[in-house]
Amino acid sequence: MIYRMWHGRTPRSKADEYASFLERRAIPDYRSVPGNLSVAVLRRDDGDTTHFLTVTYWESEDCVRRFAGDDVLKAKYYPEDQDYLLEFEPLVQHYSVIAKEDAV
What gap in Å lies between CA 101 and CA 23, rounded to an integer? Predict the structure, then answer.
């Protein structure tokens, strides 16, 4: 299982709108890919800036490839991101999940 994490920053003034965009656009996109096990969007306000983390679980690297393309560590962006993000981090982070327990 692969844990994939993306980080982005927006101006605080655009954070609510971007959070809504991620819920409407990004979450359904992730969930539409076979092998995506879950997705969560995390938010942290820090003064005039807001940080977002998108955390996804995947069955395998091949499943991530269906979403991200052959360069699985390259960040995937939507055209609308240019209206919100302060910069475009080029890479995401992947971790192999070695232990996990979900609530029942």
Answer: 25
Nearest-angstrom CA–CA distance, 77 and 89: 10
Can you give the pTM of this predicted structure? 0.91
CB atoms within 10 A of CB 39: 19
* Structure-token pair, residue 60: 């395998």
CA-to-CA dists, residue 72 to 5, 16, 28, 48, 102, angstroms: 12, 29, 19, 31, 26
Q: Compute the distance between CA of residue 19 and CA of residue 2 in angstroms, rounded to an integer.
A: 24
List pLDDT tens digits, range 40-63. 999 999 999 999 999 999 999 999
- How far apart CA 103 and CA 95 sit, in angstroms, is 21
